[in-house]
Amino acid sequence: MLAQIGKTGFAAMAIVAMAMMAVPTLAQAKADDNGTVAAIVNGDKITKSQVENVMKLNNVKEEDEAKAYPVIVDEIINEKLIDAAAEKADVQKSPEFQQRLQEAKEQLVKQMYLESYLKTKVDDKAVKAEYEKFKKDNKGKEEVHARHILLKTEDEAKKVIKDLNDGAKFEDLAKERSSDPSAAKGGDIGWFAKDELIPAFSDAAFKLKPGSYTKEPVKSQFGWHVILVVEKRDRVVPDLKDVEGAIRNKLGQEAVKKLLANLTAKADIKRFDIDGKPVSGDATSKD
Description:
Layout: H1 16-19, E1 37-41, E2 44-47, H2 48-57, H3 65-88, H4 95-121, H5 124-138, E3 142-151, H6 154-165, H7 170-177, E4 188-193, H8 199-207, E5 218-220, E6 223-234, H9 240-266
Antiparallel strand pairs: 1-2, 3-4, 3-6, 5-6
């Protein structure tokens, strides 16, 4: 539940246009007609170089090549057999095939459009500028490492505090009584800055000294918390290479959101509810 509280500004949330990558397939391995033959399927040669290309595409380690070789040969044979059977069955002439082919084309067109659009919006200059802003916002920011126990009622939280006062271990009580997923880790929620969690929780946590816990239950929209601060420190800003991927995803999401807003503003859009009645408040704007 605490995961719902946090605001990770650079969460690595992949967008379709940036996340879809080509997966190495057997079809990408081109045969060398003059190379050493690995197999012959209905007169069609499979060469050693073709098998080696597949191993390279799939990042097979050198020490594993001997074991992988016959397995990949069999996979290429199977693919050729299926290709031949599919061609004989005229699958590509079926309505279902044509429909799927059209859907694939439409998806590819959208993907390539977004990829092309994002190349101009998420370049190295934009990434560097966003990193500098990130570094400025986070350099020297105080953060705490905390544990917490989430209870449904104030009385339950007060009972936890009493048990802590009597010498019980915080981690043990978290595992036994907390309703938060962090219970499995003894209530450990890691490091966070003050503006990254809900105010009620953060305010209480940042008032504590390392090694101390809240003497009164802390209420939030998630329930009642008992908080233990383990450590405090000034935030260490990661190097660009360590956050570049997350920054590119963030900029990509923002760029696509802006693109859709612009397209929507120029479009003539009419919405209807489940009963087919026009939805009031639809803005119709068209250049």
